[in-house]
Amino acid sequence: MKATGSALTALAQGWCALSLLHGRIEAHIERALQSGHGLSVREYSLLDVLSRQHSGPGGHLRMHQVADSVVLSQSATTRLVSRLEDRGLLNRYICDTDRRGIYTDVSEAGLILLSQARPTNDAALREALDEASGSPELAPLVKVIEATGSTRA
After folding, report:
1. Most buried of the four, 50, 82, 96, 148, by CB within 10 Å?
2. Which element (helix H / strand E) includes 138?
3. How far apart (Å, rounded) are the C-alpha atoms in residues 28 and 117?
4. 39 close to 109: Cβ distance less than 8 angstroms
5. d(C-alpha 47, C-alpha 80), whole Å
6. pLDDT digits 0-9 by tens, 13-52
7. Contact 33, 120 (CB under 8 A)
């Protein structure tokens, strides 16, 4: 089924609104995390994703899984991991069962920073959503995000 011109226009407008909302939220959170904790949104996201993995079988993520989780290429994720490792926020080590595999865990310092940054992230997200809800083109998207969040809580 082909979309008509007006359907494509509506779809494109929806995509633009979603892109605008994402950009506003990310910029707001970025400013808050940078000023409060010296973290970028990507660094925070990586620490958060890695902090949720567990030890034991199936408990660690491969680099491509981490890259998918933080929406970066594998090479960009590797560079990000290296930067955080240099700051003492992550540790890397060889997998015991597969010498080709490298695991990455959040260090104690990384867990402390993450726990300090989490309320900042959450507050900045709330502020960005509240601000966006005043915009007629963004308000419906904010409602969807809030409804999705309330069903998972």
Report:
1. 50
2. none
3. 14
4. no
5. 10
6. 989 999 999 999 999 999 999 999 999 999 999 999 999 9
7. yes
Residue 28's closest CA among 130, 116, 113, 110? 130
91: burial class by Cβ within 10 Å (0-12, 13-18, 19+)? Answer: middle
Sequence-distant (≥ 6) Cβ neighbours of residue 92 within 8 angstroms: 81, 85, 102, 103, 104
19 is written with which tokens?
């892109």
46: which 2 tokens?
């990586």
Distances (CA, A) of 96 to 102, 104, 125: 9, 13, 39
The model scores a pTM over 0.70: yes
Q: Radius of gyration (Cα) for the chain, nearest Å?
A: 19
d(CA 59, CA 57): 5
Gap between the Cα atoms of 69 and 51, Å rounded: 12
